[in-house]
Amino acid sequence: MAGSIEAIYVSAKHGEPKVSIPQAELRAKVGLIGDRYAGHGIVSIIEAEAVDAFNVTTGLTVSPDETGRNVVTRGIRLNDLVGRTFRIGEAVLKGFELCEPCLVLGGRLATASVRPHEVVKAFTHSAGIRAQVVASGQVSAGDQIVEEFA
Predict the structure, then answer these.
(1) In this model, does residue 127 exceed pLDDT 90?
(2) How far, in Å, are 26, 97, 117, 121, 141 from residue 40 at the CA level?
(3) 2-147: CATH class
(4) How far apart are CA 42 and CA 134, in angstroms?
């Protein structure tokens, strides 16, 4: 099972839009350096394919950064990584839960034609995962994601 990083996003403060960065440091027990959630030891990840499918289903044109997730992948089924250890670039992570959509995300992405609860429904079970950073390392757009076989 392998995929790759399509993009990395950080937001230094609550309410600020996510900014794309070409590379980042994932630090064990801290998380994504430069992101407002650094200190929690986790990172949020979403599949580019899930965003594409959401846009087809809803008719919207949401970009991956608007989902609020930190890392966007392509070519790997993230839900399968819950409970598993995997490598992204130099870092090692362990998926621990689905990052299910909430009404905050629903409200942020809703339009006059797509209501918040419809956003939540369209992203249910496909809004990504949360993963704990187990071992620190640099990650870059284009890096492979590979499940660890220990």
Answers:
(1) yes
(2) 12, 15, 28, 27, 23
(3) mainly beta
(4) 9
Sign of CA dihedral 15, 20, 25, 28: positive
Residue with tokens 């209501």: 115
What is the Cβ-side half-sphere exposure of residue 40, based on CA atoms within 13 angstroms? 11
pLDDT digits (tens, 9 = 90+) for 7-27: 999 999 988 889 999 999 999
Q: Coil, helix or strand for 55?
A: helix
Give yes or no for residue 109 having a pLDDT over 70.
Answer: yes
Which residue, among 38, 66, 57, has the nearest Cα to 128 in the 3D structure? 66
Phi-psi region of 92 (alpha: psi -120 to 50; beta: other; left: phi over 0): beta
pTM: 0.93
Q: What is the pLDDT of residue 150?
A: 52
Domain ranges of the chain: 2-147
What pairs with residue 20 in β-bridges? Answer: 9
Measure the CA–CA gap between 114 and 11, rounded to whole angstroms: 26
What 3-state DSSP class applies to 108? Answer: helix
- How far from 90 is each of 19, 73, 143, 147, CA to CA, in Å? 22, 16, 9, 13
What is the overall mean pLDDT for the chain? 94
